[in-house]
Amino acid sequence: MKTTSPSRLAGALPVRAGRRRLLLGLAAAAALPLLQGCFPVVATGVGAGAAMVSDRRTGGAYVEDESIEWKVSNRIRQRFGGTVHVNVTSYNRNVLLTGEAPDATVRGELDGLVAGVENVRGVINEVVVGPHSSLSARANDALITSNVKARFVDTQRFSAHNVKVVTEANVVFLLGLVTRAEADAAATVARTSQGVRKVVRVFEYISDEEARRLDDPAGARR
């Protein structure tokens, strides 16, 4: 149940400008958890539409992933309240869970809870048993994520839009629809980034031909 996604860097903007725009976008994304009660607005806003254009997922899959994350988070919150700290990331309907649970029983319950959500294809449960992470640890994880994404842009070896980065306790998880070469490049950049303890690939692999088709559907028909 692994997933990956890379691509060419689009546009002729200088790398520095591209990096600045990415960091601004990441800063905005970091504020999304504060808007948990506003999912319909966030999911259907201009930012979401722009992101879909450069994503290898279909528009339907993109929106469905947003909905899955919302539904799973609500289920976990209703079932366990504040006893768990679980981050939910859905990519192409595969759900990655990261964070902390108070014991192995609760951690095990998460799989069935997620699997029961409509349209979920699979669950990757990377939740650990232990106390909740501190706010400073979470801030450091957010910084690592921003740095890894910025380095993706700087290296210009693949499109940063095609690899989703999630960091938990200095462990970087990489998701996306990618080729093997793109996956290797992304993993190398992440592994050599400051503060990264470990890199876990949660990629869905596609062929070079499929990557070209997804990146330029109009050209594939010519």
CATH class of the largest domain, anyone? Alpha Beta
Q: What is the correct CATH architecture of the largest domain?
A: 2-Layer Sandwich
Number of strands: 7
Beta-strand residue percentage: 15-25%
- Give me the strand/helix succession: HHHHEEHEEHEEHEHH
Q: pLDDT below 50 for ≥5 consecutive residues: which ranges?
A: 1-18, 27-46
Q: Roughly how many Å is the radius of gyration?
A: 17 Å
Mean pLDDT: 83
CATH topology of the largest domain: Histidine-containing Protein, Chain: A
List keywords for this structure.
Histidine-containing Protein, Chain: A; 19% strand; alpha/beta; globular; 222 residues; 9 helices; three-stranded mixed β-sheet
Topology:
Layout: H1 15-30, H2 39-43, H3 46-53, H4 59-80, E1 85-91, E2 94-101, H5 104-115, E3 122-125, E4 128-129, H6 135-155, E5 164-168, E6 171-178, H7 180-191, E7 198-205, H8 208-215, H9 217-221
Helix pairs in contact: 1-6, 4-5
What does the model show?
- Strands 1, 2, 3 and 4 form a 4-stranded mixed beta sheet that branches.
- The protein starts with 14 loop residues before the first helix and ends with a helix.
- Helix 1 packs antiparallel against helix 6 and helix 4 crosses helix 5.
- It has 2 domains: 115 residues, Histidine-containing Protein, Chain: A (2-Layer Sandwich), CATH 3.30.1340.30; 79 residues, Histidine-containing Protein, Chain: A (2-Layer Sandwich), CATH 3.30.1340.
- The N terminus is likely disordered.
- It is α/β, with parallel strands linked by helices and 222 residues long.
